[in-house]
Amino acid sequence: MTADPTAILNDRFDEAMKAAFGDDLPEGASALLSPSKNPKFGDFQANGAMGLAKRLGKPPREVAQAILEHLNVSDIAEEPEIAGPGFINITLKPGALSAAVAEMDSPELGIEPAADPNSEFRKQTVVVDLCGVNLAKQMHVGHLRATVIGDALARLNERLGHEVIRQNHFGDWGLPIAMVTTAIKDGIDAGTIDPQDLTVADLEHYYRSAQAECAPDRRGLAAVEKFALGPKARAELEEQVAGAEAALARAKEGLVALQAGDASYMTVWRQICHITLEDCFRNCRKLQANVTDEATAGESTYRDELPEVVHDLESRGVAEESDGALIVRIEDLTGIKEPCLIRKSDGGYLYATTDMAAIRRRVRKLGADRVIYAVDSRQGLHFKQVFAAAKKAGYTKLIRGEGEAELFHAAFGTVLGEDNRPFKTRSGENVRLSDLLDEAIARAEKAVAEKNPDLPEAERHEVAKAVGIGAIKYADLSSDRIKDYVFSFDRMLTFEGNTGPYLQYAQVRVRSILRKAENEHSIREADIAEAPLVIEQPEEKALALELLKYPSVVRSAADSCEPHRLCGYLFDLATSFSSFFTACPVLKADSDELRLSRLRLASLTGRVLRDGLNCLGIAAPERM
Ligand code: ARG
Question: pLDDT tens across 450-468, in order?
Answer without folding.
Answer: 999 999 999 999 999 999 9
